[in-house]
Amino acid sequence: MKTKTYGAASGIGKTGQVLKEFGERQNALNAQLASQVQTLSTQVELLAGQLGEALEKIAGLEQQITALQAEQERNIERFGRCAAELDAAEKEIDRLKLTAKLNTNAIDRLSKKE
Questions:
Q1: What is the distance, to the nearest Å, from the Cα of residue 15 to the centroid of all Cα atoms in its chain?
Q2: Residue 58 Cα to chain centre, angstroms
Q3: One digit per residue, pLDDT tens: the chain, 114 residues?
Q4: Nearest residue to 86 (alpha-carbon basis) of 59, 78, 57
Q5: Over 17-41, what HEC string results?
Q6: Residue 6 phi, psi (nearest 5)
Q7: CB 4 within 8 A of CB 23
Q8: What global pTM score does this model have?
């Protein structure tokens, strides 16, 4: 990048010296700004690379989340079936308890009659 915008020129009296000092300060400022622009360009490139890596990680995480959500839905269905089977088993156990109690009471009544 061209940073020198001033070239020495002669002038009348002190004008030449003033122009030279101004030009040198301008050249120094241009060089400093060019250095800062280069530094910022390097930082932008590094950040762009980091952003690309972060986006790749996010994409991978999104795939994992999708898989986990699908697995969660399957688990909910499984737990629903298990809960239904447990409810049915509890009803059957309650029925068997009642049958056993009724049978025991009937046996006790029959044995008391004798």
A1: 63
A2: 6
A3: 666 665 555 556 667 777 888 888 999 999 999 999 999 999 999 999 999 999 999 999 999 999 999 999 999 999 999 999 999 999 999 999 999 988 888 887 778 865
A4: 78
A5: HHHHHHHHHHHHHHHHHHHHHHHHH
A6: -120, 135
A7: no
A8: 0.51
